[in-house]
Amino acid sequence: MHRFFAVTGRFAVRFRWAVVAAWVAATILASLFFPSLTSVAQQNNTDLLPANSPSLHAAQLATPFQGPNQSPVLVVVARGSGPVTAADITAIGRLTASLAMVTNVQQVKNLGESRDHQAVQLEALAGLNLATPGPAQHLVAGLRHAIAVSALPGDLHAHLAGPVAAQADASQADQKAVNLAQDLSILFIVVLLLVVFRSLLAPLLTLVPAVLVTQLAGPVIGEATKAGLHVSSLTQILLLILTLGAGTDYGLFLVFRVREELRAGRAPHDAVTRALARVGESITFSAATVIAALLTLVLATFGLYSSLGAPLAIAITLMLLAALTLLPALLAIFGRAAFWPSRTARGTGRPGWWGRTAGRVVAHPAATLAFGLVAFGALATAVLGYRPAGLGSTPAAPAGSDSAAGTALLAAHFPAATGNPTTVLLRFRASAWTDPAPVAAAERQLAALPQFASLTGPFDVNGITLTPAQLTAAYRAESQYISADGRTVRFNAALRAGDPGSNAALHQVPAIRAAVAAVARATGATAYGVAGEAPAGYDVGRASDADLLHIIPIAIVVIGLLLALVMRSLIAPLYLIASVAISYLAAFGLSVLLFQDATGAGGLYYVIPFLMFVFLLALGEDYNILVMTRIREEAARVPLRQAVTRALEHTGSTVTSAGLILAGTFGLFAIVIGKLPGGGVYTSVLASVAIGILLDAFLVRTLLVPSTVALLGRWNWWPSGHGTPAAPEAEPALTCCR
Residues 444, 441, 466, CA angle at the centre, nearest 5°? Predict the structure, then answer.
């Protein structure tokens, strides 16, 4: 293994200029010719539900009103004062025709006047999947242009409303926030590396490969979507965090070892080659554990999780290649100058705080391990109070935007069930046009349900009550509530629990579905469904829980096998995996205390347990592999406890620096993204992972794991023979072209 990475190092050093040029050229070409990740990322998590979810069944029932590839955009037309006039109705007709001419708009429906007769609601159905921001922004821009050129009377105003318009307005702010978080993360990493290395160039050289990969991976993944790869908006955020954080970690592994080799008296090019020969295995298996954990997400039934797996695995693969080729080439180009003004001459390194700490750990391993287990166990008990919560409501329209104005008009003139309704769908044997009695009975029973605060339907349109005779006369041609064949009927409800995205609404979904099923049976409906934000959120939570149970065991087995390979041991993977579980439970418990109990929230977002485990399992093993491979290397020359001391002395600063960088990157994104409407989901997820990484880097990998190694002695490496000192292995030839 060392010889392979020595050959890789010699190649990167000898062809250093060509390697750098190839990476730069690939990044530029990908940015020019491949689509950006932003343009292909799906914004709507409900589009990623399993095929058998009740929400998708309800969506199929709703196809007479809205096709599976159609997306509705509401347009609210209102007067500043007084009822709409005949001239206004004529102008609204012109606007309807203008909206229908917008690209991809297939139909524009007039949903009728408000009860106060001061507003009219239109619905534009677009033949697009607006889960990605690019098409949504183009459509919204086209609709607003149609409004602008329709020459409405002076006191008549039209605005877009609803989730699609709000998301389009918010997406620009979202992208600015992501860019800001990326810039702040880079600045944070540079400042921290300046403190760590006490040099000017080393921080920049460590960071350059990670920054380059962030620019390359997005277009590469965007191009892969043409082959059917799915990505979500969370993919874009996590890609930046993982490439900056994990990429810098891999860079630290190598740069610290290069400095160590320089201080051992090696020439710069030989130092780079030997350093890669020694830590190339650690870097490769660290990346492999992350890639393996991510690829297990492909097996998830919830599309949000499965959409993270392959794209992020592609990014980490590119990061691994850059760490093994681009970074050695850069270090070979700059040589000792990379570490100026710090000293790299022979003998300038000296034991620091971690050297003294390592001595205490191996002197009292049982006490260290016992204290750590008690402290982590105390934090883990808070997990018992965990309460799952939904992903929250649809982000509000940005203040001052056109969609905010439309949302305000919608709330002022139309029933509460209009803006973000929970939709009940019933399918009857006979047409409602010829036999409206079952529909009328269903509407009365639904309106009486305790879970609904208000209900609109065929007999209560925009607050205006109709009789069965009026229904047949007025709505045979077109209706927002009854399908053309009259058999499928839609009702829009406002929930008594409040915001459909709230935790209270989420918990009401089973009762709502049971009550609707009872109404369907009582009125002779042959099929029923409940659609909307609350039912979809509930189904997402169920899918997430199911994935938690069957993905995590697979990830543990896969990473355990990788650890067995790199450790050449069957014992070490067992306690290394156990250390991740302890770290996870403690971090999860601390997140419950901070983000659920301390804030008074109804619960933690249900994606947190799953994503925390996957990322802590993968990223935590990075530090395990670095520490354990160095212990194994030292154990080939000195007794085990002395090997632990030496290994921790050399890797302690690397692990804690890497942990600070990775946790800081997660934390900065949590702060910046959390300022956006609906950003609370990202804040809790990212901050929870950051907490876990800090606990992992500062306590588990540097204290608990070394103390366990010291206690187990030669059994750490069973059945291989690394338990006793051996003659130093032959060094791979390091001579390479200067």
Answer: 70
Q: For residue 510, which of 529, 535, 532 has the smallest C-alpha distance?
A: 535
C-alpha closest to that of 402 among 151, 172, 159: 159
- Rounded Cα–Cα distance for residues 577 and 556 (Å): 7
CA distance 535 to 422: 8
- Residue 574: partners with Cβ closer than 8 Å, 6 or more residues away: 560
Q: With contact defined as beta carbons under 8 Å apart, do 508 and 390 qualify?
A: no
Long-range CB contacts (< 8 A, 24+ apart) of 521-525?
522/441, 522/445, 523/426, 523/428, 523/438, 523/439, 523/441, 523/442, 523/445, 524/428, 524/429, 524/438, 525/426, 525/427, 525/428, 525/438, 525/442
Let me know: does 655 contact 697? Beta carbons within 8 Å: yes
Are 139 and 130 a contacting pair, CB within 8 Å?
Answer: yes
Phi, psi of 431 (to 5 degrees): -70, 140
* Cα angle 558, 246, 298; round to 5: 40
CA-to-CA distance for 332 and 326, rounded, in angstroms? 10
State the amino acid at position 671 in one-letter form: I
Could you state, in chain order, the average pLDDT of each consecutive group of 10 residues for the chain (738 residues)?
Answer: 88 95 96 84 62 86 78 88 88 91 87 85 77 70 90 88 79 71 84 86 92 93 86 80 86 90 90 93 91 89 84 94 96 92 63 65 84 91 83 64 87 73 92 88 93 86 67 56 89 87 85 95 94 87 84 88 88 89 90 84 77 79 83 84 83 82 84 68 80 85 84 85 49 49
Pairing of strands 527-531, 422-427: antiparallel
Q: Distance between CA atoms of 186 and 722, rounded to whole angstroms?
A: 40
**Residue 502: closest CA among 612, 601, 417:** 601
Query: Interior CA angle at 417 toward 415 and 422, to 5°?
Result: 175
Q: Which long-range contacts (CB under 8 A, 24 or more apart) does 596-601 make?
A: 596/385, 596/386, 596/387, 597/382, 597/385, 601/389, 601/503
pTM for this predicted structure: 0.78
What is the DSSP code (8-state) at residue 131? T
Distance CA 173, CA 601 (A): 26
CB crowding 195-230: b at 16 or more within 10 Å, else e: ebbebeebbbbbbbbbbbbbebbbbbbbbbbeeebb
Q: Rounded to the nearest 10 degrees, how much is the dihedral formed by the CA atoms of 82, 86, 89, 90? A: -140
Give Cα 315 to chain centroid, integer Å.
14
The length of the chain, given as a count of residues: 738
Is residue 308 within 8 Å of residue 235, measured between CB atoms?
yes
DSSP-assigned letter for residue 415: -
- Ramachandran angles phi, psi of 268, nearest 5°: -55, -50
What whole-number distance in Å separates Cα of residue 338 and Cα of residue 336? 5
CA dist 64 and 66 (Å) reads 6
Distance CA 613, CA 533 (A): 27
Q: What angle do CA 8, 12, 15 make, to 5 degrees?
A: 130
